[in-house]
Amino acid sequence: MKKKYLLAPGPTPVPESVLLKMAQPIIHHRTSQFSEVFRRAAELLKYVFQTEQDVLILAASGTGAMEGSVTNLFSPGDEVIAVNGGKFGERWGKISEAYGLKVHWVNVEWGRAVDPAQVEKVLDANPGVKGVLCQASETSTTVAHPVREIAALTRDRDCLTVVDGITAVGVFDVPMDEWGIDVLVSGSQKALMLPPGLAFAALSEKAWRFQEKARCPRFYFDFAKERKNLAKQTSAYTPAVSLINGLLEALTLIKEEGLENVFARHLRLAAAARAAMEAHGLTLLAPESPSPAATGVYVPAGVDGGRFVKYMRDEMGVTMAGGQDHLKGKIFRIAHLGYIDTFDMIIAVSTIEMALSKFGHPVELGKGVAAAQSILLEGFE
Ligand SMILES: Cc1ncc(COP(=O)(O)O)c(C=O)c1O
Question: What are the DSSP calls for 253-305, one per residue?
């Protein structure tokens, strides 16, 4: 018997009560019973997104909300900036190019956060730029980008800050309205503790004005149509009924814990993961601006990162993520977002220690666990 642990930065584990809600018999979506679930979930989403605006609920993976943001806000030929410091920043640019936008790539070394001055320089040199597209948390490099500062740069320009909060919303503080973020998107399979399949998008008043003028082709992801339907407690097309049952339960759990406590938990788990790795002298991928969602760590010289991650998954039952693109085989990523708590971190750290030992890397077993424990203890009264 091998017990399985999912400690990857998405999909993430799903709480038992959410699983049970999703196992309920399907009800028809054009009924008052379903509308009530939809209405309550939509209301709680505003709390989690920290916005007064509607949060659109789409049946799609997170990328659907990214694509919808591009097509609903811009027109072919529009200029945008894509902050490209990882796989998902690159995705913003690729989606934009697919719809005929002109992309100014702000390239950032993987593992580092963008310097807002870099963005400002491009904005100043190109006054026609209509949007800055970036990640609050770039999952591929485990970096948190300074989206607050970026939003401040576009506030007084005819330009939107469009933020992918897929591993940020419900992980750490990204108050959309307070920071003046124009678009914030997320997905279900991360901090919202659900299976994959739902995407979310919230737009500021300014973004809705852009929406009226945007001319990119679109059909399924028509935000104006979704907003109209949301006002009637429904969605334009058949919603993912079971996922929305689960969503209401997951959001209720978040509300009960309280956003501040949720953020504190993520910060504590992230600090524990970093301390544990540093106790072993391992090098962090993003030491300067680490995301509270996941911690990227370089595998020590002589260890094949691909085999290492596979060994932890297949032989030890613990799934963590490896690296993407040029970081493939070079790093592993410990996730600490969503339905992940103190003792999941102990499992993660002890798995890494044991696997390193199996791979012949000299490691003092328990040293990282002890470093993590002393931080995790702070979570108890
Ligand atoms: C920051 C970020 N953006 C975008 C995505 C893509 O989301 P999806 O795979 O749900 O389309 C992910 C998924 O890992 C992500 O972490």
Answer: HHHHH-HHHHHHHHHHHHHHHHHHHHHTTPPBS-SSSB-SSEEEEEPPTT--H
Domains in the chain (CATH in brackets) are 5-10+258-379 (3.90.1150.10), 16-256 (3.40.640.10)
What is the Å distance from ligand 1's center to 203 Cα?
19
Dist. CA 41 → ligand 1 center (Å): 21
CB 235 within 8 A of CB 39: no
List, for residues 7-24, the tens digit of each pLDDT value. Answer: 999 999 999 999 999 999
pLDDT in tens, 116-159: 999 999 999 999 999 999 999 999 999 999 999 999 999 999 99
Residues enclosing ligand 1, CB less than 6 A? 10, 61-63, 88, 135, 137, 139, 164, 166-167, 187, 196
Cα(10) to centroid(ligand 1), Å = 8
Q: How far is the CA of 86 from the centre of ligand 1 (A)?
A: 11
Q: Which of 139, 143, 189 to mutate to test the pocket of ligand 1 (most atoms within 8 A of CB)?
A: 139
